[in-house]
Design brief:
By secondary structure, the protein is mainly alpha-helical. The protein has one domain (2-229). It has helices at residues 2-30, 41-51, 81-84, 89-106, 110-139, 144-186, 191-229, and strands at residues 58-62, 69-71, 76-80.
């Protein structure tokens, strides 16, 4: 069983790296494809937000590459340098996707509500899960009772991050679906341009699938270690 989980973990890591490369190359490819008759991603995002009455959601330019995100706490849509002022199919697709999250927030989309509620627990878990796991493995050889408790606690904390990845997936898929529907509804984009947006968003979705796969297999490996050492 341990050998199987080991090879599955390696496969998941390869899948994760491949997904990251895919999203990078796909974004780069469609960054060279103009769309929407020159309308920038920021303009398109503003148009979609306003059509849903989300006038209070501001759009800001942020540094970095593909650092685009919607902040539900401050109700701000942040678009990266390569997206904000670009009119490419890639940029428009990414911006519309983030608007999809803003619409989810406004409509109290349940998976997003649950995901947001998990954030404090996940922040704590991401800091301390591996500390508890490593200390647990160490102490099981010295003070078995303490080691068992620490390792079990670390696994519980790590499971919170796995749950977070699981809940994130439907949020991302739904945001992409909303994005493509909204872009189609504007009437500004041809089938070819929408196809480019879809390819970029599909590639991005695979990174979330990969993250879930890595986390889930890692959790199974930790449970296996716990059972074996106990």
């Amino acid at each position: 069983m341990d050998i199987i989980l080991y090879f599955l973990f390696i496969a998941a890591l390869i899948f994760s790296v491949s997904a990251q490369i895919k999203v990078s190359t796909t974004f780069k490819k469609y960054s060279r494809v103009g769309a929407g008759r020159g309308r920038t991603a920021a303009e398109v995002a503003r148009r979609i937000l306003d059509s849903h009455g989300l006038y209070h959601v501001n759009i800001e330019r942020v540094g970095g590459n593909l650092t685009d995100h919607y902040d539900p706490r401050s109700r701000v849509l942040r678009l990266s340098e390569g997206v904000y002022g670009s009119s490419s199919a890639a940029a428009v697709g990414v911006a519309a996707h983030e608007v999809g999250h803003a619409i989810q927030h406004a409509t109290a989309y349940k998976p997003l509500v649950f995901r947001t509620a998990l954030v404090p627990a996940v922040n704590f878990a991401s800091r301390f899960s591996w500390i508890a796991i490593m200390l647990g493995i160490l102490f099981m050889a010295i003070v078995p009772y303490v080691g068992t408790y620490l390792l079990f606690s670390g696994i519980i904390l790590f499971s919170a991050t796995t749950l977070f990845h699981l809940v994130t997936l439907p949020c991302e898929i739904n945001a992409s679906r909303r994005a493509l529907n909204e872009l189609d509804y504007t009437g500004w984009y041809s089938r070819e341009e929408l196809s480019g947006c879809k390819r970029v968003l599909s590639a991005a979705a695979m990174t979330y699938v990969a993250a879930l796969a890595v986390s889930l297999i890692q959790l199974l490996r930790l449970i296996s270690i716990f059972n074996r050492r106990r």
